[in-house]
Amino acid sequence: MKIEDIKSRRILNSASKYTIETKVVLEDGSTGIASIPGGLSKGATEVATVEPNQAIKNITDLTEILTTKVFDNVHELDKFLIEKDGTENKSNLGGNTILSLSIAFTKAKAKSEEKETYQYIAELAGNTHKFKWPKMMMLMLEGGLHGSSDATIQEFMAIVDTVDRGVEIYNKIKEELKRLGKSTNVGAEGAFSPDGYDNEQTLSLLSGFLHGEKIALDIAVSSFENKNVLPDYESLLKNYPIASIEDPYDEKDWTNWELFGEKYTEKIIVVTDDITTSNPKLLKKAIEKDIGNAILVKPNQIGSVSETLDVIRMAHNSGWQVVVSHRGTDTNDDFIADLAVGSGAEFTKFGSPARGERIAKYNRLLEILE
Question: What pLDDT is attached to residue 40?
Answer without folding.
Answer: 66
